[in-house]
Amino acid sequence: MAEPVELKKISDYLWEIPKSGEMRVPGRIYGDQGIIDQLVADLSRDWSALRQVKNVACLPGLQKYALAMADIHPGYGFPIGGVGAFDEEEGIVTFAGVGYDCNCGVRTIVLPLSRAEVEAKKAELAEALYRGVPAGLGSHGDFRLTMREIDDCLRGGARFAVSRGYGTEGDLEYIEEGGCIAGARPEAVSDRAKERQFTQVGSLGSGNHYLEVQYVDEIYDAPAARAYGLEKDSAVISIHTGSRALGHQVGTDYIVTLKQASEKYKLPIRDRELVGAPIRSPEGQRYIGAVFAGINCAFANRQAIGHLARGCVAGVFGMREDRMRLLYDVGHNTAKFERHRVNGREKLLLIHRKGATRAFAAGSRGIPAAYSDVGQPVLVGGTMGTCSFILTGTARGMEETFGSTVHGAGRLKSRTQAIREFRGERVIGELRSRGIVVRAHSISGAAEEAPGAYKDVEEVVQVMEGAGLNKKVARLRPMICVKG
Known about the structure:
Strands 7, 8, 9, 11, 15, 16, 18 and 19 form an eight-stranded mixed β-sheet that branches. The chain has a seven-stranded mixed β-sheet with strand order 1-2-3-4-5-13-12, with helices on both faces. The protein contains 16 helices and 19 strands. The protein has helices at 33-41, 49-56, 115-120, 122-132, 147-156, 158-163, 169-172, 191-197, 222-228, 244-264, 282-317, 395-401, 415-421, 424-433, 443-448, 457-466; strands spanning 8-11, 14-17, 27-30, 66-73, 80-87, 92-94, 105-114, 210-219, 234-241, 276-278, 325-331, 333-342, 345-354, 356-358, 377-380, 388-393, 404-406, 437-440, 470-483. The model has no long low-confidence stretch (mean pLDDT 94). It has a domain at 8-97.
């Protein structure tokens, strides 16, 4: 019989799993009654996100709470939408808190075009992006790297891509960590992982990765929108991808190493993907160095894709690429050291965000000067048939969730369920009838990513705003979607 999970309602948008048994801290889940009812119903299944929150709460060195955002659904050990902050001295780094796609994230570029201008050339632009941005399973990008060059990429991140002519120095200010996280250790990444990445920098990949041309449908916070350069009916490009084959291989390699470390250090692991190592141990330091290398790989990848996308737009509309401004680039599968307040004092913590996005408030360290008064842009992807959002963080969010929030709508149905219930051709046809052009490199992939396979992103975002953790800035609607 499945282990029961006690839930206590704190507010309309916040629920708690009280500390019990082996739990070192309580679990906290942000959701409304509908989201919570679905999670409770899922307790009867083998995979349960609520049980995963409870399992995470048993890990050593976890601070305050095991957290789950409103897009919560089951992942590998850690729930998607999960956040865990670990004390540098007593805590661990866990594979499940990062997963197989280090620094999967979203990049949004503001175009000097209106919705009407894009609509007039929508088919032409969709074709240009489909052909100009490599996508699909095993797709190859523009880069052709040697072993030495891949090490430079893993150290330099987006800066390496800029040095190769992909974008400009000005882009770097508008990327989380300036597009390069310090402490990456290419020597901690296997040759196999590097070899798999030689031709994949600058490629979108498959699964839930996408490139969308969107328009601003609604402005909610005018001052923040002005700071971000957004106007109603203006067009943007959003890119969702990560570290591709290299990140996957890092995960494959280290899940074995971390299993051995978990046994060596006698860690209380309640799920095989929660394996980890003490942060200060040799195994922990090596894995963190490899994760940081994967983070930089993803920054380089999105930088290269952004450059290719700009080139496609420039070709169709006859404009200069430097007129297309990077709004922001932020990851949602990361483990990073950040300073946050715990029990009234500032501490250095290793923040795991698995399918959760950094959401720093106004005045926070580490955000672009141009956004200091309004806060960091938070890029939340929806589905190719609904909408996406741009949010900003709040002081309450910094306190309650270590400056973290949702990354998207969150899956309602597994990929296997989606393929059973939806047909890719029908999904594409229905979206076409609504004026959304979908160019998919895989028909089955379109079925997996059917809008009906996901939660209602508007509900998810409303929970986070209702809880006081974020503020809505703008809602984006899709016009073109390129899927792997």
